[in-house]
Design goal:
Helices cover 31% and strands 20% of the residues. It has a 7-stranded mixed β-sheet with strand order 6-5-4-3-2-1-21. Strands 7-8-9-10-11-20 form a 6-stranded mixed β-sheet, with helices on one face. It has a 6-stranded parallel β-sheet with strand order 14-13-15-12-16-19, sandwiched between helices. The radius of gyration is 22 Å and the shape is globular.
Length: 466
């Protein structure tokens, strides 16, 4: 039997663009299919054809619905992929929202670039459009969580709850008795909305994310910190703007602010959710209640406390409100979405507070603000940064270094190979050293487009379905 080949097509040496192709010699299985984000040299890779025969891929398995794990699917289908895309039902519901939103934003950005002439391309074109997104969605097939499912002869798969966002899983893939485990994005051990992650028991070949592989999240009181930030902004007479990821982060922020206002810990000021995608995600929370901690009553009361913006016209109505207010708007890394319109109006005001509430990838506007940028380029124009920039790292939905080690702690034996992926180089290397010092395992930091040979075992060996 041939060796199994692993093609590292993304999230290798960087956080975004997750794609791992498993080639057994008979079958080709793609784990995740994400967009590169952040640095321009990475974003340009989204326009390249994958260095594999796309029409030979037999299925795609998704760990969760985030753009850096699903956003390349319309491109994959355009390149000739015509098989199933499998994931849990809430992951597919999230992916539908995210792909449609991504396509719409790309269409709008291309139209704006052509109208205002700030693109080097003439005409500027979207990476994909809504029609491409719908074609990808037509391939979606839901799977059950926690059950072994047959894929092909001698190959089975199991999706296991991992927290992070609604629907998120790690994937166990048994290929002729050898177990490949893909962490996806691992959630927190203690989270406001998600339950604690499940841990793998066996992994011959382990792929582990390293977004926060170099650090521990601060142990501060989140509610107290958020309360102080709101009071501070109100005292300045300003607006608190929170760029937010639409999935999980926006709902967590809504929950926390609702609780603070409910307990009269913060003033009764307007609270606005201006993210059409995040509003749609709330429907997914209602639909898949077993995946999170919120009750149906909590969801309803929380939503009633917020003004949920339905149109771009309403965005301008919110901007025209002069009194202090709280605005949650996409996108979380300030790469696009409604938050850019708010920043065009509020970024040069000292009384504004801009609260970053999640990971900011290299090359994003959010990362620039975090690093003290004095001006920000939005739609071809520069805006002076006079707003107060704060960071709420404790709210991260990613496991930190300690939690990553904890997630691996129940493995019954040392894996044959450990690949550290989905992290910037310094974070991945820090996790490599920690794994070596703590567990005694050697790890590999694969480079983009590397191909790794994995020796197979006899297909006659009985599978272990632990």
């Amino acid at each position: 039997m041939k060796n199994i080949q692993v093609h590292f097509l993304g999230a290798s040496g960087t956080v975004t663009g997750s794609k791992f192709l498993i080639d057994t010699g008979e079958r080709k299985i793609l784990i995740d299919c994400g967009l590169f984000q952040g640095l321009k040299k990475l974003r340009l890779l989204n326009w390249d054809h994958l260095p594999v025969n796309v029409d030979e891929i037999d299925t795609v398995l998704l760990t969760h619905g985030h753009l850096d794990h699903t956003g390349y699917l319309p491109r994959l289908v355009k390149m000739g992929f015509n098989q199933s895309i499998q994931a849990t039902a809430p992951t597919l519901d999230i992916a539908k929202i995210i792909l449609r939103d991504s396509a719409k934003i790309q269409e709008e950005d291309a139209e704006r670039a052509n109208r205002e002439g700030f693109s080097k391309h003439s005409p500027a074109k979207p990476l994909y459009d809504l029609e491409d997104a719908e074609r990808a969605i037509s391939h979606f097939r839901p799977v059950e969580v926690g059950e072994w499912l047959p894929l092909f002869e001698g190959i089975q798969v199991r999706f296991q709850y991992v927290g992070h966002i609604i629907g998120a899983t790690f994937i166990e893939l048994d290929i002729h008795g050898k177990r490949f485990v893909f962490s996806g994005d691992i959630g927190r051990k203690e989270d406001w909305l998600m339950r604690a992650y499940t841990k793998p028991k066996k992994a011959d070949i382990l792929f582990v994310e390293s977004t926060y592989g170099s650090r521990l999240h601060p142990k501060e009181d989140l509610m107290e910190r958020l309360q102080k930030i709101v009071h501070h902004t109100v005292e300045k007479g300003g607006t608190l703007i929170i760029p937010s990821f639409a999935v999980e982060r926006a709902q967590t922020l809504m929950f926390l602010l609702w609780q603070l206002q409910k307990n009269k810990s913060i003033p009764d000021i307007p609270m606005i959710m201006d993210s059409p995608m995040a509003a749609n995600v709330l429907d997914v929370f209602h639909k898949h209640s077993s995946w999170h901690k919120l009750t149906a009553e909590d969801c309803t009361q929380m939503c009633n406390q917020f003004h949920i913006v339905k149109s771009f016209k309403e965005t301008w109505e919110v901007i025209d409100v002069k009194r202090p207010k709280i605005v949650i708007a996409g996108s979380g890394m300030v790469t696009g979405g409604r938050v850019l319109t708010y920043l065009q109006q509020y970024l040069d005001r000292p009384e504004t507070t801009l609260l970053l509430a999640g990971y900011q990838a290299e090359g994003t506007r959010g990362r620039s603000l975090l690093e003290g940028a004095s001006e920000l380029k939005i739609y071809g124009k520069y805006y002076e940064v006079k707003a107060e920039i704060l960071n709420l790292e404790v709210l991260s939905a990613h496991a930190d270094q300690g939690e990553l080690l904890d997630w691996m702690s129940d493995l019954e034996s040392k894996p044959e190979k450990v690949f550290i992926v989905h992290g910037e180089n310094h974070a991945a290397d820090a996790l490599r050293l920690k794994i070596k010092d703590t567990l005694g395992w050697d790890s590999i930091l694969p480079e983009l487009y590397r191909i790794e040979e994995i020796p197979t075992i006899s297909p006659g060996n009985e599978m272990d379905n632990t």
